[in-house]
Amino acid sequence: MNDHAQEEAQFEAGPRSLASMARFLVRAATVLIIVLAVNQTFNLGFLVGVTLMDMRFYYAILGIALAIVFLAYPLSQSRRQPHVPWYDWTLATMSLLVCGYFFAHAMDISLLGWEMAPPQTAVWVSFALWGLVLEAGRRCGGWPLAAIVAVMSLFPLYTQFLPQAISGFHSPASFTAAYHAMGSESILGIPLRTFGNLIIGFIIFGAALQHTGAGAFFMNLSFALLGGVRGGPAKVAIFSSGLMGSMSGSVITNVLTTGTMTIPAMKKIGIRGTFAAGVETCASTGGTLMPPVMGATAFVMASFLNVPYAEVALAAVIPSFLYFFGLFMQIDAMAGKERLTGMAKADLPNLKQTFREGWYYLLVFAVLIYMLLVMRREALAPYYATPMLIVLNQLLSRKHRWGWAELGKFIDTLASLFANLVAILAAVGMIVGALSMTGVAATLVNDLLRLADGSALMLLAMGAATGLILGIGMTSTAAYIFLAILLAPALVQVGLNQMAVHMFIFYWGMLSFITPPVALGAFAAASIARTPPMKTGFEAMRIGSVIYLIPFFFAFQPALVLQGTVQDTIISVALALIGIALFAWAVQGYVPGIGALFPKRRYAWLLRLLLLIAAVLIALPATIVPGWSDFDLVLLAAALSIPLLVFAAMQNRAELRLAAQ
Asked: What are the boundaries of each domain within the chain?
């Protein structure tokens, strides 16, 4: 659930191992964040006699988390010594004092409008918070994120010098600092408020799952169910990485945990290293898009849309299923083409024993989903599911039962996740604040509409390219927030469904993990498979190629995100499944029941390209092509594909007859 912020900067990087005193203080601060969150969520009033007013709660969370950042994350990755240097102690203390000042004056900020008319002392403290948030964002998100946030947070100071299309209202430095520190749309904006009100509970739940052995259970369950079928380990990677990614919300963490088992197993049955690493990368990326627990971006999306998180999770069901279906079909086709078998039964875990050892994980997931989808208690759900999981683990599991050491590691994980995500979200919030101050967001919508000449497809293409580029230098949450403010209103204005638009932006922010030249998910998998990173990235891009199309499908056919009638949903899903299956077969050059497609023929690439076009036509929503219906597109696709498939079948039978003679 940490939204892979640290990994996007550099997947080898992370918090330092702290000496005893600093570690104790970080753990105490982490427990205090949990206490504050529980007190606020359940309105218990056990901390100060009353539940904190929201602004005080956010400043308390921000100050504590920033202090953890400066203690746990070093100035640079070359300085990862356990000893915390004096300047980091100073920054941690400053974080507490600065946020403590705003905590104490929260009522004045709310009632007297300090963000618009601040006293001089508040201005200087605001400058201090601005700098602290920038440095914390740099330590957790890397230099690219820090540079983008710095330039954008200063936007009100130089906006009047820019071309008219992107210029806005000028603000002096003092007003800009005060607005960033005390305004409701900057550091304390939607991203940080979503963290405080919703994300903390799911971070705790995800960490508890990992520390109670849920990852090992889902891995064993995947091997028991799918390890013996053809290409079994690759199919295991889809299943296990999907479940693990849904728990952790981090592509890199997912790759480096499940990949250590699935990639060697894939190579053992004859799958080449780049393909094995590519499969793991694609599966881990898809895991962060899969309900019920997605990434932090999904929770921020729910806040932007002002809908329950359950609606976002439900909307993601069909797109994530289509993506994993496409991966499964590609793997099956590759295994058929290469005549690969599954793993030996003796090497697989026993299904009954696996269920007996970990059935309670499924029970906990069921409780979480019931509270999310039926009871609609999304803020409370993880706070019930987590204690239930820990109690069952302590009672039923000998292998993963916690002692004091395990509890300490659990709290250390939470410290890293809390600090990392707060630093990123607070920094990104300043981008929102700057755009809000200058009024550029509203005017840019009209400029985008004029530039695209009102074309939804052109706007989507612009959004896809921008999301991919932003995803290279920013976290997916940051990229989503940026586009949700600037692009989403324009897409909605040309008639696209709001949920589909935001899901489209969400998907394209994630694609940098499998898309070279960055492709950090592929690079992490390549480090395990010992394959060339860039070659692995291109392989991952080929295996996951269907994900580049699925967002366009549901953007034009909102029934795919459950924003249509039941009939539209059934028809759209059926056509998408057929199109995606044909697409996967064309990419791999193999069709079950027919065999390889035109092997060793010079014209093979041209005929497979025609099959790819036919596949896209089948899955393509008719609204993209004016004047055409779904039936017309399917008819054209059939006219292209059926003769080619018949030709391939006849060719393979002729070769079999020749071989028999």
From this structure: 5-183, 199-298+306-401, 558-661
